[in-house]
Write a structure and sequence with these properties.
There is one protein chain. The protein is of the alpha/beta class. The chain has 17 helices and 18 strands. The strands form 3 sheets. It has a 9-stranded mixed β-sheet with strand order 5-4-1-8-9-10-11-12-13, sandwiched between helices. Strands 16-15-14-17-18 form a 5-stranded parallel β-sheet, sandwiched between helices. The chain has a 4-stranded mixed β-sheet with strand order 3-2-6-7. Helix 5 (167-177) links the parallel strand 8 and strand 9. The chain is elongated, with a radius of gyration of 26 Å.
């Protein structure tokens, strides 16, 4: 999105009233160092360093709305305990979050406590009950929905399955939406029919898969699952969040649309779904259409996953992220072996399928483009190993390469189908392959599968070796021969 257009939309979000309803939680993060194993049991000993606490669940949705300048009434249930007082303190400290909390003395406030070391979550401990609310507590929530939703542009319903989102609460949200608000549901349920004619239901890919009873890995599988899910509910649209693969939208009566942007440096994905719900709902309440709202949500999610814990984003952070994306150059995609290993580690933490191929790529021609495009279609991220000038001469003779390594690397890195370029000086890329441990190894169709260098390694760790189609009539050698004949 153009930064000027983005600024215009962010300005329109300020002051928009959006209600967050559902399971309110307290998220606690305890960080420490692990340097030994307990003598009492084979478990790591976490030496406490620091901790942080913030609103989670529906509370985090409200935090995200408020962080972008919206007004965020928060409707939910807490217990009569210390965690409830903490939740109230966090609401008071959050600008523009209005608390409409109902106390249930017979249930604990939901608390998620995560223990982490060196960026890795070691354990999560949940304090909760999933018993559905009833009686005076349920009546209080129904009344709170009615009170909080006055003059609101959207109602965001977060159903984490903790017992707050009962049929009566759903009916109250639908009644409030009938007065002019949009109803968007973030559902962990195994079916979407219970929400009635919501405007949008927003599961993640795993939740969609459970609801539809179908796989949801590829675009094609997502499309089938979305169609099946729409047949079982009355929602106007289903928007599925797919982590690094972006989002996919199925609007009733229309073809599925897929939305993506280059994956950010992921540090922590906790709460990213809340951010997607908050920004989508806030944008719709401000007058955006669904595609624009999704684009804004993707930018916001890209910011929060680069932060630790359950995080929010501001307008300025979104603007900076989009400006940085527009400033990206091919040079940023050229790395040495250590840089490649770090990047591959990041991609694996995002659950991405990593592919690898290699070549000299001396004079780029249509055959190269077709080959690399096909390789990229088989994976989520494609690494291209490229021979140094010395290793090209060793294989092709002293007259090659025509173009030096820097030029060849820059041209390959400029291709949208290539995600990383890594030079190697050895006669074969076997060292790079061993370091990258790709899920997929690709070579041209002029090779035999059993002759692909590194194929045995890749198959050994459960990876796949494939041959890309060979385009007749295009090669660097043929190009040079034609040039010499003129």
């Amino acid at each position: 999105m153009n930064p000027i257009v983005l600024r215009g939309w962010l300005d329109r979000l300020v002051g928009v009233r959006v209600v967050s309803v559902g399971d309110v939680m307290v998220d606690r993060f305890i960080y420490g160092d692990v340097s030994r194993v307990s003598a009492e049991a084979p478990v790591p000993v976490l030496a406490h360093v620091r901790e942080s606490v913030m609103l989670g669940g529906a509370g985090n949705v409200a935090r995200n709305v408020a962080a972008l300048g919206g007004v965020a009434p928060l409707v939910g249930v807490v217990g009569e305990d210390a965690a409830a007082h903490e939740a109230l303190r966090l609401i008071e400290a959050a600008n523009a979050v209005e608390g409409y909390l109902v106390t249930d003395p017979e249930r604990p406030t939901t608390v998620k406590t995560r223990f982490s070391s060196a960026g890795q979550q070691l354990l999560r401990m949940d304090t909760e009950t999933i018993r559905p609310i009833a009686g005076e507590v349920e009546a209080g929530i129904v009344q709170a929905v009615e009170d909080a939703s006055r003059e609101s542009g959207a109602i965001l319903l977060s159903d984490y399955g903790k017992g707050v989102v009962t049929p009566a609460v759903i009916a109250a949200c639908r009644a409030a939406a009938a007065r002019g608000a949009r109803l968007i549901v973030d559902s962990k349920a195994r079916g979407f029919a219970r929400y009635g004619a919501a405007d949008v239901i927003k599961p993640n890919a795993a939740e969609l898969g459970r609801a539809a009873g179908l796989p949801t890995e590829t675009d094609a599988e997502i499309e089938v699952a979305l169609a099946a899910a729409l047949e079982t509910c009355e929602a106007g649209a289903i928007l599925v969040t797919r982590a690094a693969r972006g989002m996919s939208l199925a609007v009733r009566g229309e073809a599925v649309r897929h939305f993506s942007r280059r994956a950010p440096e992921v540090f922590d994905t906790a709460g990213a779904g809340d951010t997607a719900l908050a920004v989508t709902g806030l944008a719709l309440a401000a007058g955006a259409d669904l595609p624009t709202a999704i684009e804004l949500a993707l930018i916001a999610c890209g910011v929060v996953v680069e932060k630790s814990g359950v995080a929010v984003t501001t307008a300025e952070e979104m603007l900076e992220a989009e400006s940085a994306s527009n400033r990206a150059t091919p040079d940023a995609k050229i790395a040495d072996r250590a840089g490649m290993e770090a990047k591959v580690d990041q991609w694996r933490r995002q659950g991405l399928r990593v592919g690898f191929t290699n070549g000299c790529f001396d004079i780029l021609h249509p055959g190269h483009i077709a080959y690399l495009t096909q390789a990229r279609s088989w994976c989520d991220r494609l690494i291209v190993g490229i021979n140094t000038d010395r290793s090209v001469r060793a294989g092709k003779g002293d007259s090659r390469p025509v173009n030096p390594l820097d030029a060849r690397s820059a041209v390959i890195a400029a291709l949208s189908c290539v995600d990383l370029v890594v030079p190697f000086d050895e006669d074969t890329p076997i060292g790079l392959i061993a370091s990258a441990k790709p899920d997929l190894l690709v070579k041209g169709g002029d090779y035999a599968l059993d002759a692909v260098v590194g194929g045995d390694l890749v198959r050994g760790w459960g990876g796949e070796v494939r041959l890309a189609g060979f385009v007749d009539g295009h090669s660097t050698t043929a190009t040079l021969k034609r040039a010499a004949a003129r």
